Amino acid sequence: MIRFEHVRKEYPGGTQAVQDFSLESPTGSITVLVGSSGCGKTTLLRMVNRMVDPSAGRVFIDDTDVASRDPVELRRSIGYVMQSGGLMPHKTVSENIQTVQKLRGVTPALRLARVDELMATVGLDRELLGRYPAQLSGGQQQRVGVARALAVDPNILLMDEPFGALDPLVRSDLQQELLAVQQKLAKTVLFVTHDIDEAFLLGDQVVILDTGAVVIQRGTPAEILAAPANDFVEAFIGADRGKRALHIETRGGQRIVVDSDQRVAGRLVEGP
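and the corresponding structure tokens:
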């Protein structure tokens, strides 16, 4: 569990990146922070692993204030995936995945066994182990980044717009891969994005932020779609656009879900 209690971040010069933010991210779930660039979501993410310390307030992992933890030890216990992948260009895929394990003194045999396991988990072929990041596609680099973040089996995974720079098809594949990994491993994930569709796809809890990390609305995707808090949220989630205004029609004997522009969104099937 991650808990923010009235955190604030003010930088020299008086800029307030975070005004007064409180939130609990439940154990084993994905919480998505979503908002426009500069709203403070990445600052909040980095408070969890002490890459940024708050000017006021506290951040807890379970019942431990992260301020009481050694920053280096804390970061090695938390998985972190960033947009660029953050891979070391002079190290192979295998060496990149082993980075934190090696720093924590895990034996070579155990490291290699874990690498094999993780390659399968993130859907990468073992033949890539000896390659360098420059020899990989963007999607492959991000999968390696996820594998590295999971290498020491952390309870918490921080993901800072990890799929934002990828083309739509690769991005969709990796989103589904993350959901599959989460179903299997049940990590506590804090995910940052500016894409509301990604937020609704991945988030058990979605938190919509305005400038200064002001919470405009939080809830499940269904709760937010059903009852946007205000006009800003309604516009942000696209409730006023065709893709969100869905209805059911019968075509060829099948119940089809279509939007207001008559584009087919899916087929209605009976639940389990």
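(Above: one complete record from the training split.) The chain has two domains: 2-240, 241-272.
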